[in-house]
Design a protein that fits this description.
16 strands; HATPase_dom; phosphoprotein; transmembrane helix; Two-component system sensor histidine kinase YesM; Bact_2-comp_sensor_kinase
Length: 598
């Protein structure tokens, strides 16, 4: 059966075409909802980040202006250039500068250190709010780099980055005169506000990274997360990015990444928000997206099981029943399915097969009656033919005034006619058929004295087998009429009968092979034999094509055998090597009881 043309295939395709737009719409809605959440969260987080960065940048810009104004408005810093290093006035001026720096630190909330560096005397004055040693180390570490920006035309960023052992910082240095330099230091951790991004949960956070991707501030992010963020720094020009982190033996974890580059230094403010925590208010949509393919498969399988029980299974049962009926099994009866429509179809099928079965029996019985009538009609075709020949023989003997022969002829003819009264039967025994042939040949011997002889040789135990009446006579008669032409030589007819072992037959049992015993009857003579043209026609079975011609006897016997036995029986014709014709008849060896059962 062509699966593409089946109802099962059409149902699957139809259900898929109906469900596919619904699933696509649901999938689109879920993806759209998640994108809306991403947009809203990224917008909120970006607003916080922009606000924080702008605040930081504003403080750094104000600090720049403050540092540039020291050389013009601070008299103590100006006076140091004219005072002797180490003098009392020099020390008092430095103390006043220290007090001023400590006071100004309070006004600039991000700045935790101001310093003044005497390049000629290599003296560093540092005012800081805490961790003096760490801040002093960072300032001393940055001074060589900061001093280079005032040599030649090398342009440095507004604020330099100093990487320490325990922490990093931003440093800004300005040149007041040939001797003194002033500057400010900002701890990187003071620029980072991870607490603003409450959506990040325990697995997200904020961090400041340099252009090389190395973290500059402390962060709740792991080293792998910072490395992941650093790999996507070029995408910060977008409003946000969705990036993935590979988890060993687990599903990849997704993050919403956003950030801003700093205008005051070579660094970037970066925020990572885990989607798992960000979407915690949308668990249904996340699960729906993951379960959409599974849900579609479950719905499709459920629908197929339901339709299979309701439609496909009864239809397959009906198709199997039709196939059995097509093979000739008319006793098929189907159980009615639960649905009323298919129950009507099934009952109609059962009714139809029952009617066909009865109709076939009626047709078969009618065929038997027709074949019986035809068989009797064919059988009657032979009797008048022989009667006419017998009358011709009696007429010839009477003309010759051979009264004794006429008496013998009349006796044999009476026995022959007595047999004919029983020839209306469907079958007769072989010994009865042979006795009938003997009477016929005795009549022919009276016609041709000393010119005709015969022999009947039938194996013992074969006489009880049956055959259609007058099966042998047409061939014996034809042998005398057509073979007995050389009247100067004695004409001999030999009739033999023998059985054979079982042979295979597949035509009598619906194609199943069955072993059938066969009976062979042979009519031989020493006459002129068949001419080649006639022999060719007989061997090709053309004797059955002309029921009205001169070989009506042969056609009659062949047709009766075919009607009764089918292809199991047959005729064979050939000429003997030393002259004469041979006809072989083979039929199933059946007793009268077996023939009646068949």
């Amino acid at each position: 059966m062509n699966f593409i043309r089946s109802l099962r295939f059409k149902f699957i395709v139809g259900l898929t075409l109906i469900m596919l737009p619904l699933f696509l719409l649901m999938y689109y809605n879920n993806v759209y909802a998640m994108n809306v959440v991403r947009d809203q969260v990224s917008l909120t987080s970006m607003n916080h980040l922009v606000k924080s960065v702008e605040q930081n940048e504003r403080v750094l810009q104000e600090t720049n202006r403050y540092l540039y104004s020291l050389g013009e408005r601070d008299p103590d810093i100006i006076s140091l250039f004219f005072l002797k290093y180490g003098s009392g006035d020099y020390i008092i001026a430095k103390q006043r500068i220290m007090n001023k720096f400590m006071t100004d630190i309070g006004f600039y909330n991000l700045i935790d250190s101001f310093f003044l560096y005497d390049a000629i005397n290599d003296d560093l004055l540092l005012a800081t709010s805490g961790d003096y040693d760490i801040k002093m180390s960072l300032v001393q570490q940055s001074m060589p780099v900061q001093m280079q920006q005032f040599e030649g035309d090398i342009q440095q960023p507004e604020w330099g980055i100093v990487r320490g052992e325990s922490r990093n910082a931003l440093v800004k240095t300005v040149r007041i005169n040939q001797q003194f330099y002033a500057g400010a230091l900002v701890d990187m951790n003071a620029l980072n506000y991870p607490e603003q991004f409450t959506e990040s949960g325990d697995r997200g956070g904020a961090v400041i990274v340099g252009i090389d991707g190395v973290a500059l501030s402390n962060s709740s992010l792991s080293a792998d997360q910072i490395k992941l963020a650093a790999a996507h720094l070029p995408g910060l020009k977008n409003p946000y990015q969705v990036i993935s982190e590979e988890v060993p033996k687990g599903k990849a974890r997704q993050y919403l990444m956003l950030g801003l580059p700093s205008a005051m230094s070579k660094m970037n403010y970066v925020v990572l928000l885990p989607e798992e925590d960000m979407m915690r208010n949308l668990p249904f949509f996340q699960r729906i997206i993951r379960l959409l393919p599974i849900g579609a498969a479950v719905i499709l399988i459920t629908a197929l099981v339901f339709v299979r029980q309701l439609l496909f299974r009864p239809m397959n049962m009906l198709i199997r029943g039709m196939r059995r009926v097509s093979r000739g099994e008319l006793d098929v009866r189907l159980e009615p399915p639960p649905s009323s429509e298919l129950e009507f179809v099934t009952r109609s099928f059962n009714q139809m097969t029952s009617q066909i079965q009865h109709l076939k029996i009626d047709v078969y019985e009618e065929q038997l009656r027709t074949r019986e009538a035809e068989f009797k009609q064919l059988q009657m075709q032979i009797n008048p033919h022989f009667y006419l020949n017998s009358l011709n023989i009696i007429h010839s003997l009477a003309s010759l005034q051979k009264h004794e022969l006429v008496q013998q002829m009349a006796g044999h003819l009476a026995d022959y006619f007595r047999f004919s009264l029983r020839a209306g039967k469907r079958v007769i025994r072989l010994d009865e058929e042979m006795e009938h042939i003997r009477h016929y040949l005795e009549i022919q011997k009276l016609r041709f004295p000393n010119k005709l002889s015969f022999s009947l040789e039938v194996d013992a135990g074969l006489g009880h087998y049956v055959l259609p009446p007058l099966t042998l006579q047409p061939f014996v008669e034809n042998a005398i009429i057509h073979g007995f032409q050389r009247r100067t030589e004695p004409f001999v007819i030999r009739i033999k009968g023998h059985g054979t072992a079982m042979v295979s037959d597949a035509s009598m049992n619906h194609g199943e092979t069955e072993q059938v015993p066969m009976l062979f009857l042979t009519i031989e003579d020493n006459g002129v034999g068949f001419n080649q043209e006639l022999l060719d026609r007989l061997q090709q079975g053309q004797y059955a094509e002309d029921p009205g011609g001169q070989h009506i006897g042969i056609w009659n016997v062949a047709h009766r055998l075919m009607m009764k036995y089918g292809e199991v029986a047959g005729l064979a014709f050939h000429n003997q090597v030393d002259g004469g014709a041979t006809v072989v008849i083979h039929i199933p060896a059946q007793t009268e009881e077996e023939e009646g059962g068949a």
